[in-house]
From TrEMBL:
Stated name of the protein: DEAD/DEAH box helicase
InterPro entries on file: DEAD/DEAH_box_helicase_dom, DEAD/DEAH_RhlB, DEAD_box_RNA_helicase, Helicase_ATP-bd, Helicase_C-like, P-loop_NTPase
Pfam families: DEAD (PF00270), Helicase_C (PF00271)
Region listing for Disordered, in residue ranges: 364-437
Helicase ATP-binding domain segment(s): 25-194
The species this protein was found in: Secundilactobacillus angelensis
PANTHER family: ATP-DEPENDENT RNA HELICASE DBPA, ATP-DEPENDENT RNA HELICASE RHLE-RELATED
């Protein structure tokens, strides 16, 4: 590694290279095509950025492209790459869908050495002859398991058909899909496989909890979790509709939240991420597409508001916490049936799922004691509470401590008898007479 990069690593607080960084450094620097498999949060970005930059020459046009599945990840990659590229007087340009294309074209006219972007925008600019690829010698496909599926697979293939045939390819992912074992078949060049998932121990201790809660109570429980000391979470949803509905409920109950979804403008998404990173909000509600590959430093928790359908999706979601040795907490919402399904989905993984409970502004694995059953006067008004499978369930319209106890029915004095006929009248023959005692 060149001295400038060694010094930068030390400034970032790294004493040594992570397993994936060590394993792919020489192959990438030598120009080999590589498939890099490593756990989430293990330093894959610097694993390909450093050796690729060392192969480039300043002032020689676009020589490298990095393809990312989302705007947020593209911007994150741009920030990391630029911090190293400036040490070599190189420029990095980001081109993503949803951003101002005229501004991106102006940046391309400055002849950057590296372009980072989303596949759709990259291909559009190539086809419009605005993005010149004849000098490209390296293309990195980040989150390859995601990008090499569905429509984006065809888009990535078309991009690679527009670069020189001798191009170096790099594919990086935390999980393996069938397509990753057929890369030579689809792209026509041999690809060296580097898998460090079994030897990488950079991830911190992450607890995976099952919190039993019905669908109608999820928003209320999410609001309650914000009262837990130092709690801050990236909250995953399967659909934008449920995300927006939950945001509305939380906002109505004065719980500050931010959202991250594909239908937002880039400026809105960037503000949401900034507010979350700076601690202005404790909850960032997101879909899988928007949060893929995000690196949020020291993120304490991930909440699966909607449970994922596959183990791969679960791995990428929970990989947002416990990164680079930091501890983390995963909270999975669902009823008894949902949580059993999740256990079956993850039965072939190493995740240890344990029940967790919320009580007195805390999350813990110890089941709270059953509330004592007490009779209550029907005329008394209070929020009903009941213990169901260890969870304190309350009216979802009020976020309140779970320790509140119902009032005990008071003993009432015997009613006194009124004197018969006192101040009472009866009708007799059309006239009102005072009743005789």
């Amino acid at each position: 590694m060149i001295p400038q990069f060694k010094n930068q690593f030390e400034k970032l607080g790294f004493d040594e290279l992570s397993p994936i960084q060590s394993a792919v450094y020489e192959p990438l620097k030598n120009g080999d095509s590589v498939l890099g498999l490593a756990p989430t949060g293990s330093g894959k970005t610097l694993g390909f950025v450093v050796p690729v930059l060392e192969r480039l020459a300043a002032g020689q046009g676009i020589q490298a492209m990095i393809v990312a599945p989302s705007q947020e990840l593209a911007m994150q990659l741009t920030h990391v790459t630029r911090s190293f590229a400036t040490l070599l007087n190189m420029q990095v340009t980001s081109i993503t869908g949803g951003a101002n294309v005229k501004r991106q074209l102006e940046q391309l006219k400055k002849h950057p050495e590296i372009v980072i972007g989303t596949p759709g925008r990259i291909l559009n600019l190539i086809e419009d002859r605005k993005l010149k690829t004849h000098d490209v010698q390296t293309v990195i496909v980040d989150e390859a398991d995601d990008l090499l599926e569905g429509e984006t697979f065809d888009t990535v293939r078309t991009i690679l058909q527009n670069v020189p045939s001798e191009v170096q390819l790099g594919f990086f992912s935390a999980t393996e899909t069938p397509i990753l074992s057929e890369l030579e078949k689809w792209f026509g060049i041999p690809v060296t496989r580097v898998d460090v998932r079994d030897i990488d121990h950079t991830q911190g201790e992450v607890r995976h909890g099952l919190l039993e809660v019905s669908n109608l109570k999820k928003a209320g429980m999410l609001g309650k979790l914000t009262s837990v000391k130092q709690f801050k979470a990236l909250v995953f949803f399967n659909h934008v509709g449920a995300l927006q509905q939950t945001k509305s409920w939380l906002t109505h109950h004065h719980v500050p939240v931010a959202t991250l979804s594909a239908n937002q403008r880039q400026t809105e998404r960037q503000k949401a991420l900034t507010d979350f990173r700076l601690g202005r909000v404790k909850l960032l509600l997101s879909t899988d597409v928007a949060a893929r590959g995000l690196d949020i430093a020291k993120l304490p928790a991930v909440v699966n508001f909607d449970l994922p359908d596959t183990a791969t999706i679960y791995t990428h979601r929970v990989g947002r916490t416990g990164r680079m040795g930091e501890p983390g907490q995963v909270v999975n919402f669902g009823d008894d049936h949902d949580l059993r399904d999740l256990k079956r989905t993850l039965k072939d993984t190493d995740y240890e799922l344990v029940p967790v409970y919320y009580q007195d502004h805390r999350l813990g694995t110890k089941r709270p004691e059953q509330l004592e059953q007490q009779s209550v006067d029907a005329d008394q008004v209070f929020e009903p509470e009941a213990k169901v499978a260890g969870e304190v369930r309350t009216d979802p319209t009020a976020i309140q401590p779970a320790s509140r106890k119902p009032r005990v029915k008071a003993s009432l004095p015997e009613p006194t008898k009124k004197k018969k006929g006192h101040n009472k009248h009866s009708k007799r023959k059309g006239m009102r007479h005072k009743r005789e005692e």
